[in-house]
Model the fold of this input.
Amino acid sequence: MKSMKIKNMKNRKKTTRKADPGNLLSLVCGAIDQLIESAQAFNGLLFPSVLEIKSGKVPKDLPPAIPGQRDCDRAFPCGSNLTHDHSVLRLMYDLAGSTGETCYRDAADGYLRHWSLHCTTTPTGLFPWGEHAFWNLEEDRPGSSYALARVYTMPTHDHLIQAPAWLWEKLWEFNYREVERFCLALENHFLDVENPLQYNRHANLLRRHPMRKRHEGHCDFPRHSGFHIYDWSFAYAKTGSPTYRRLLVRSLDYWWERKYECGLLATDTATISRRLAAPCQTLSLCATLYEAAALIAPKDPDLAKVVTSRAATYCKGLTDLLDNSPKGELPHQINVDTKVATLGTPVWEGAYGLRDVAGEALLSLCIHRINKDPRLLEFAKDVARLYAKTAFPTDKNIPIVVCGCLLLLLTDLFSLTGDEEWLDMAEAQAGKLAPLYMNDGLPRGATGIEIYESQLLPGYFLRGLARIAFLRKGRDIGADYTRR
Done:
């Protein structure tokens, strides 16, 4: 595997204010080379989720979770998780196209071909990926993250983040039958109850059986509704099957019928009666609906118009909220009657169930690119300036994904506006952050720890570094909006 030589990061001063684009690209390629090499200890194709920074090997014991991280979300022992890895795989395809290093494309194809043909044939049709499931490389079977937390329950499917169209295209190319089987199996997330319908973001991975009874832990988050709608939209666009249309319309109506009059949505149906809205959940579903409409439009333009119209309603609820919030702030939870925020969105310290505002601003730009709403662009600018004046906490474990979303936010602002201020700001942040996360090749999952961990989503950080380097060369590999 051809590798770009990494410069000696151990001697690099941590006071660096501006990163060298060439060195950033070397760091990115060196990290990916090590990931590819780490696969050789198993099947030579899939990446292990947890690796020691120094040795590049899977640790014997799993280090403790950082604050805000749950053991039941981690892929160990010897786990590999495509949901965690697809941001890295997309970057590998982009590197191959931009540098001519075709080994990255070949390695990404090898990963996805093997995964689609070998890891997808579960009894239910649901895939071993996402929040609580993975592929055990050592035992060559689906694994469950619940065992790490001593939670003895069913191996569980949960989407976690969006599976993007490019990934579905690849999986369809390699094994379209299992993609169709998966999309049909997504219906397992609906409970065996009617009037009204109810679904759960969790479903049994290995055994189809009647799901949780109503009111026993709702977990019918709007963002997961969006993930399922997007998957069904892809399948509908590919096949024209009325089954997929029926499924996506049912989920499309689910939260539309439960929205607040202001256009915002609750975290789940259990909180509707408390009049609490979750703007970040609304943002996620809104972005996904806009993108789903683009998939549907060639096959069913009338349905695409309905999907777009509903996304626009959710967007108006969000922008009305932004108009009445302090600059750079998007409340995580708000009382829809009093308009009082009951929970804020953190700057640097993201945690389970409470994502950083950089990620929300980046997703706002995803929507802005589609509907051109200037308020979303201004919100993203305000968030970027908030990070510029908010000190990085050196005494805490800051997840790498937070910094990755920040770099992607700044580079996306430059891509949209052409204003050098944003690219300069991205380079300045990269100069401070790269030595903290990448002074030994593989990126740390968080500051203060000595492991690479895919569950902390390092692919966004690698993409942010690479995008800076390519933008300085007059090329753009684009953002990654899948964390939502």
